[in-house]
Amino acid sequence: MRTLLDSGLPDTTEDAVHGLLYELHRRACRSPGHAELMTSLFAREVALYTTALEVGSATGVFSLAASAHDLAHGLVALEDGYGLHIVSRNAAQRVDRARELILAHARAVTGCAGL
User: Fold this and answer.
1) How far is 94 from 103, CA to CA, in rounded Å?
2) Partner of 52 at 20 to 30 A CA spacing, among 37, 58, 104, 105?
3) Which residues are within 8 A (CB) of 111 and not within 5 positions of it... i.e. 6 or more apart?
């Protein structure tokens, strides 16, 4: 879970991959086909998190505060929101702090202090 969370955030304000992803999201409002692709990307991210949460729950590592699917939606949205502020050079949002905040949320919703 920690690896998933880490990989979803840009490493720096100059992270080219994440910067491009945010540009692609912006362009989706002008193209239905492109919007469909971005919707698919979001669904895949949610599915990945859902699986990790379900496995954690099934193995007794996690005690989920809500459905795995709902929690996955929230974690992806947190990644996207913090990531956007990072690549937008919001001086109030540092990469390390964003990671801490997302991990704190993940700990709270999974009941896993070891995250």
Assistant:
1) 14
2) 37
3) 62, 63, 64, 65
